[in-house]
Design brief:
Blueprint (H helix, E strand, L loop, with lengths): L15 E4 L10 E4 L7 E10 L2 H8 L2 H19 L3 E6 L2 E6 L2 H17 L10 E10 L1 E2 L2 E2 L2 H10 L7 E3 L1 H7 L7 E7 L8 E6 L32 H13 L2 E5 L6 H11 L8 E5 L6 H11 L6 H7 L6 E5 L5 H14 L4 E6 L8 E5 L6 H15 L7 H10 L4 H9 L6 H6 L4 H4 L33 H7 L2
Parallel strand pairs: 6-9, 12-15, 12-16, 13-14, 14-15
Antiparallel strand pairs: 1-2, 2-4, 3-5, 3-6, 4-5, 7-8, 9-11, 10-11
Helix pairs in contact: 2-3, 6-7, 11-12, 11-13
Length: 480
């Protein structure tokens, strides 16, 4: 057995070797169980392991053995100080039981402080993730056989090095107690368990509190942000996108800037959540420039810190929809990534938005045009205008002329309606001769590319093909 899998013996008892199936480590590892006084009844279970231990071992070689021994010494001392009973130790992982949930929390806090203050070598910093869960259990032959043990192991696997996560049952026993300050991380899905679990993170004085998202999926099965305003005039488009996705696993929503591609894609995702058992996940590619940045954006959307190759392995049997937004910025790289995802997963689907097709063999296109009629355009203008100034005097014929002059382009209509903060409706119509100057938004919550009509220009000349079904406003703007 390599030193990376070194067996750690309890200093108090000469144990008997037992082959066990560890809930969160490799199934073949030989571990030792010590005959110790294990608590019974309501027990708080703690699982710990070193983040990136395999990479550390590969990098440090025999030096890792010394670091592992020091890690074990530090943690064993803490478990003893807080009445923790070491159940098993395998490799770099501890399984410890406490009769008191508060003792378990204090032990984790002390352990993280000790680990963070230890003078580890620069290339060998030991960072340990810890997870706590409380449930009913009784020891049997120096071990526990209980569902609570499996849940504790799964919960510990959610965290990151330096992080301590608590299940609801542990949180209920320590909430409000000294030394048990926590941060609510929300509800998350746990592998092999049907019901989402609300996870809290322990706050330890002087130690970091900001960590990446937990290593699993949010309970709500999507990361879509529901817009605060109403969605108007795209019923046929939503139906068409749904029909295309029922026949193909890659559909690209194509149209010029400002036509509403992102808004329509998000609305489709929100309405179609029940069609994908593993959720709908939005990936914004607007700020990505390289293949690596794109892959990182996908991982972040899926709350994964794993390599992209590992993410693709997980997608193999997942029934989910990825919404890839703003693909035109990295169209070649995005096309390659979509092909790779579809090749590795037979169940995942992709809805992309772009100012040009991805030109992938499996791709279906849905071209998004401006609003279909003046009635819909007028409804959008009135809705946005009323939100800006409920008392504004609105004349339908004037609104219709404004909307027609804006080619019924949604972003242009919304920007024009927003000018009612400082202008009358007649003044807006009179200013239509200088539409580029008129159509500027001062909203700070908008992305920069949504604040001016000029920002709707495509990034390259090849995108001008989209203008073939657009009105003169778009062609004027694109020539700016």
């Amino acid at each position: 057995m390599s030193s990376a899998r070194k067996v750690c013996r309890s200093p108090a008892v000469a144990p008997e070797p037992v082959l066990i199936l560890c809930a969160h480590r490799c199934p073949w590892a030989l571990v030792y169980s010590a005959t110790v006084a294990l608590p019974s009844g309501t027990v708080t279970f703690l699982f710990t392991d070193i983040e990136g231990s395999t990479a550390l071992y590969r990098r440090l070689g025999d030096q890792y053995e010394r670091l592992l021994e020091r890690h074990n010494e530090l943690l064993r001392e803490v478990w003893g100080d807080f009445n923790g009973a070491e159940v098993k130790t395998e490799g770099d992982a501890f399984f410890v039981a406490f009769s008191s949930a508060l003792d378990a929390v204090h032990a984790c806090a002390r352990a993280q402080i000790q680990l963070s203050s230890e003078p580890w070598p620069v290339d060998g910093v030991i960072r340990v993730r810890m997870g706590l869960h409380t449930g009913l259990a009784s020891p049997r032959d120096g071990d526990y056989i209980a569902m609570a043990v499996h849940e504790a192991a799964r919960i510990s696997a959610l965290g990151h090095g330096g992080q301590v996560v608590l299940s609801p049952s542990t949180m209920a026993l320590v909430e409000g107690e000294p030394g048990a300050m926590t941060v609510d991380l929300g509800s998350w899905r746990i592998r092999d368990f049907d019901t989402p679990v609300r996870i809290h993170q322990l706050k330890v004085d002087g130690l970091p509190v900001d960590f990446p998202p937990l290593r699993t999926r949010p309970a709500q099965q999507h990361n879509l942000v529901a817009p605060q305003d109403s969605f108007l005039g795209r019923k046929l488009d939503l139906e068409g996108i749904g029909q295309q996705l029922s026949q193909a696993r890659l559909v690209t929503l194509v149209g010029p800037g400002g036509v509403g591609k992102t808004r329509t894609a998000v609305e489709f995702g929100l309405r179609a959540l029940d069609q994908w058992a593993d959720g709908v996940w939005f990936v914004d590619l607007a700020s990505t420039m390289t293949r690596g940045e794109m892959q990182s954006a996908v991982g972040e959307a899926l709350s994964s810190t794993e390599s992209f190759d590992e993410i693709l392995d997980h997608l193999d049997d997942r029934q989910l929809l990825l919404i890839l937004d703003n693909c035109e910025h990295v169209v070649d790289e995005c096309a390659a990534m979509c092909s790779e995802i579809l090749a590795r997963s037979m169940t995942a689907s992709i809805l992309s938005t772009s100012r040009e097709p991805l030109e992938v063999g499996a791709e279906r296109l849905w071209r998004l045009a401006p609003l279909p009629d003046v009635v819909t355009a007028r409804a959008l203008f009135r809705d946005r205008a009323t939100a800006v100034d409920p008392s504004a005097e609105l004349d339908d014929s004037t609104i219709d002329r404004i909307c027609d002059g804006l080619d019924r382009l949604p972003i242009a209509i919304e920007m024009a309606a927003a000018r009612l903060r400082t202008m009358r409706l007649d003044d807006i119509e009179a200013a239509m001769d200088d539409r580029v100057r008129l159509l500027r938004s001062r909203r700070r919550d908008l992305d920069s590319r949504q604040r001016t009509i000029a920002s709707c220009r495509p990034p390259a000349a090849r995108d001008r093909a989209c203008a073939s079904y657009m009105g003169p406003l778009v062609r004027v703007v694109w020539s700016v």
